[in-house]
Specification:
By secondary structure, this protein is mainly α. Helix content is about 85%, strand content about 0%.
Length: about 190
């Protein structure tokens, strides 16, 4: 049990330490670890966990880590994986906060942050692309994709404060209605 907890801690600590850009940027790294390398989850399980982690409170990476940790070593595994994921950020932010004003004035730090922003965009795109490849490609998925993207861009351009949670709930309701209706047709 100790070895499993140590393995969870070290792997999720490494992900937390070397991933910039927040939870969404961690998704490809977590997938690589838990699906490709360790085989702790299947592709389908990972997609389902991402959907659940996205729609539950808290950062998506923490929710993923909690689930994977729980699956590997029950409650203690969930706690260890979650703490390991957030601990590097906590330590780094705490240290930076001690001398933030001086830190941000450094020219090379500013240059580094510009580069990090570009890299994070690519990581986010990779996460979105990976998720998009795994969904069922049918008319309803394309309609929801275009509608959600259009609404988010419109609200952003018009500076309208709009929660993405509403879009997630809207997608869930449309999916429930569409697939419930579609499955009733198949049953008849």
């Amino acid at each position: 049990m100790f070895n499993k907890l140590k393995e969870l801690f070290l792997n999720f600590f490494k992900i937390g330490l070397f991933t910039f850009g927040g939870g969404y940027a961690m998704i490809p790294h977590i997938k690589e670890l838990v699906v490709d390398n360790k085989k702790w989850l299947t592709e389908d399980e990972m997609m389902q966990v991402i959907a659940i982690a996205e729609s539950t409170p808290g950062p998506v990476a923490c929710n993923l880590a909690t689930y994977v940790g729980y699956k590997q070593a029950k409650i203690l595994g969930g706690i260890v994986a979650t703490i390991a994921t957030i601990l590097p950020s906590f330590i780094i932010i705490y240290l930076i906060s001690l001398f933030f004003d001086e830190f941000i004035k450094l020219t090379y730090v500013n240059y580094a942050f510009q580069g990090i922003k570009c890299a994070v965009c690519i990581l986010l795109f990779k996460a979105v692309y990976t998720l998009f490849k795994k969904i069922k490609h049918n008319l309803i998925s394309y309609i929801l994709l275009i509608l959600s993207l259009g609404l988010m861009m419109t609200f952003e351009l018009l500076s309208i404060n709009f929660s993405s949670i509403i879009l997630i709930l809207f997608g869930a309701i449309i999916g429930l209605i569409y697939y419930s209706f579609k499955n009733k047709e198949v049953i008849k």
